Amino acid sequence: MTKIILYLDAGTELRSSLDPIIETIRTHGYFLTQQKTLIIDHTDEQTFTALNTSKNEFSTGVYYQTAGGILGFITNHSGFYKDILMPFVACSLNVDCIAPITSRSSTIHRFDQSVLSILVHKVGYKVESAERFHGDFGSALELDTNMVIFSRRWHCPKVYASEVVFRHTCTYSPIFRSRHRIKIIHEHIGVHPCGTLTVFKLRSVQIELPVYQVYMILYMIYIFMMSCLYCWSPYVLRFLLSITRIKQRKV
């Protein structure tokens, strides 16, 4: 039985229907989408060598990385299985291929994404370039209306679908307790962002942080204030004493 497999990692969100992605998989046998970074800028030299290619082959022209966390294919596509999946698995089982020793202290190597990107471009598979399939916080606001996949990565989850069932009340710490409805989603669902607090909002700019991060910020502010008090209190006392002595001399 033929099946469609779509893999999305935990840092991605679905913002609208998957129909265009499913249609692409049915038409081409797979779905791949690009990232905004180049392969040569985010891949270790030894990974190129392990995959029987070189960095020079990707230096002429613009070769963007293929997203490692957004991947779809149909199970009876023998070409994708042979050209991508099998060498991908083989490289993943070889530490010198997916994670060379020179890459372990690097912040630019993308590991599985680097491997997938090289394999995809070697065989010339079509990669979706439309940003609505790989949007992020750097995307234009106009894309919000037709965004399909949004990458939040390590940021807080965003409430985005009417099908999600939300709690009607939240149990906050006493200093953050609130039972007021925060916002309306799809006209009829009252949403309480139980895990986050809005710490800054100005027109279209809104910053949300997890509650534990807000606690941490308050704690750091407290430590800073106490440190200032501890460091400056002798000087303040000395100043006040000097003023008192001056007044006493005048008397």
Q: What do you see in this structure?
A:
The structure is a single chain. With 251 residues, the chain is α+β, with helices and mostly antiparallel strands. It has a domain at 4-133. It has helices at residues 19-28, 45-50, 78-92, 95-98, 112-123, 211-250; strands at 4-8, 12-14, 30-38, 64-74, 149-151, 183-185, 189-191, 196-202, 205-210. The strands form four sheets. The protein has a three-stranded antiparallel β-sheet with strand order 1-4-3. A two-stranded antiparallel sheet has the order 2-5. Strands 6-7 form a two-stranded antiparallel ribbon. A hairpin with a 2-residue loop joins β8 (196-202) and β9. α3 (78-92) runs antiparallel to α5. The N and C termini lie far apart (103 Å). Residues 160-164, 166-170 and 172-194 have low confidence and may be disordered.
Radius of gyration using CA atoms only: 27 Å
Helix-strand makeup class? alpha+beta
Shape annotation: elongated
- From the N-terminal CA to the C-terminal CA, the straight-line distance is 103 Å
| Strand order in space, largest sheet | 1-4-3
Biggest pleated sheet: 3 strands, antiparallel
- Give the uncertain stretches in residue-range form: 160-164, 166-170, 172-194
Provide mean pLDDT, rounded: 80
The count of DSSP E runs of length 2 or more, i.e. the number of strands, is 9
**Total helical elements:** 6
Beta-sheet strand percentage?
15-25%
What oligomerization state is this entry in?
single chain
Q: H/E element string?
A: EEHEHEHHHEEEEEH
Task: Give the proportion of residues in helices.
Answer: 25-40%
